[in-house]
């Protein structure tokens, strides 16, 4: 390990076998060895080879007493291999942490992009209306103001979507008490131009004044996902008289929200997998809408979500 022969080693002082920065540790070690009776301890010390290279090592010292005389047996072990393995392990761990952070960030970005589809299309529609209306002169100031107001409130929803997913797993985010009807209205207003475009009617059987105390925006994101799925299937399957029905009933223990459509239902062989990440049967689907909804409902809102 050191490159010295046994005879050479016998002639050397400890200082000659170790780099200067280890001197304090060596002094301390020798003192403790003198004091210790039957002491057995392992010390981490760097050695310096005959060629001047540094070798990381571990010394195990055993002090034994025979005929009232103390002997010390020091065994030094080269641990460079072990340190290299540990370093590699640490690097791999760091890499895994980094990868999982990247994956979480990727998931956050896809969630935001997913939830922005409807509001983006709504804002595009509003701007198109404003442009055409202004150019052709059929829009008055009051109508323009209404459209601008709608665009702003949609932008606000988009900005809240970012906050939602940024704070997704933060335990300290605030819960609020809110009226389900108002939340539902807000969601419908975002997807409404798209529903109108496809001639989809929304029938609501909702008790008045049902209140929930939870994360309002995340709850809205789930409603948006489910209504969006209904809209997707109704337009893809070109259903005549397409409808979405929303029923909300408040019981003593729980509030039940049922959202159904007359699009023909979920494919029999897809049913088992619809909540899996990236499972989709649509050519342009990402397969994250229901996955995200299940996480929000079960992990964050502590409710249940099922499909039939
Ligand atoms: N209302 C519905 N009617 C029929 N099938 C549905 C309905 N809602 C969901 N599904 C099925 O569940 C699958 C998964 O839905 P999910 O919302 O997770 O992904 P997606 O809509 O395909 O893609 P995206 O990530 O854009 O939402 C859909 O591809 C579809 O097969
Ligand atoms: Mg979807």
Attached small molecules: adenosine-5'-triphosphate, magnesium ion
User: Helical percent range?
Assistant: 40-55%
Q: Looking at this structure, what is the CATH superfamily of the largest domain?
A: Histidine kinase-like ATPase, C-terminal domain
> In CATH terms, what is the architecture of the largest domain?
2-Layer Sandwich
Helix-strand pattern, N to C?
Answer: HHHEEEHHEHEEHEEH
Mean pLDDT: 90
- Strand content is 15-25%
For the report, how would you describe the main beta sheet?
Answer: 3 strands, antiparallel
Shape type:
elongated
The CATH class of the largest domain: Alpha Beta
- Tally the helices: 8
Radius of gyration: 35 Å
State the separation between the terminal residues, measured CA to CA.
71 Å
Q: Which fold name corresponds to the CATH topology of the largest domain?
A: Heat Shock Protein 90
Number of strands: 8
Coarse structural class: alpha+beta
Strand adjacency order, main sheet: 1-2-3
Q: How many distinct domains?
A: 2
Spans where pLDDT lies below 50 across 5 or more residues: none
């Amino acid at each position: 390990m050191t490159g010295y022969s046994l005879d050479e080693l016998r002639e050397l002082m400890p200082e000659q076998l170790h780099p200067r920065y280890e001197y304090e540790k060596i002094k301390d070690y020798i003192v403790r060895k003198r004091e210790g009776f039957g002491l057995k301890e392992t010390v981490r010390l760097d050695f310096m080879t005959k060629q001047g290279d540094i070798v990381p090592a571990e010394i195990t010292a055993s002090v034994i007493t025979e005929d009232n005389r103390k002997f010390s047996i020091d065994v030094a072990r080269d641990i460079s291999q072990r340190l290299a393995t540990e370093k590699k392990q640490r690097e791999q761990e760091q890499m895994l942490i980094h990868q999982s952070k990247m994956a979480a960030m990727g998931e956050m970005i896809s969630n935001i992009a997913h939830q922005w589809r409807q509001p983006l299309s709504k804002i595009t529609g509003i701007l198109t209306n404003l442009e055409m209306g202004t150019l052709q002169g059929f829009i008055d100031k009051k109508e323009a103001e209404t459209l601008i107001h709608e665009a702003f409130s949609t932008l606000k929803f988009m900005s809240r979507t970012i906050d939602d997913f940024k704070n997704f797993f933060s335990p300290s985010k605030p819960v609020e008490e809110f009226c389900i009807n108002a939340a539902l209205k807000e969601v419908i207003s975002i997807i409404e131009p798209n529903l109108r475009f496809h001639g989809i009617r929304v029938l609501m059987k909702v008790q008045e004044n049902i209140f929930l105390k939870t994360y309002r925006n995340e709850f809205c994101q789930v409603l948006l996902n489910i209504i969006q799925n209904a809209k997707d299937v109704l337009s893809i399957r070109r259903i005549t008289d397409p409808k979405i029905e929303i029923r909300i009933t408040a019981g003593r223990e729980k509030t039940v929200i049922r959202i159904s459509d007359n699009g023909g239902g979920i494919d029999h062989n897809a049913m088992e997998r619809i909540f899996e990440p990236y499972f989709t049967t649509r050519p342009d689907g990402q397969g994250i809408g229901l996955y995200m909804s299940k996480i929000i409902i079960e992990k964050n809102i502590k409710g249940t979500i099922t499909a039939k």
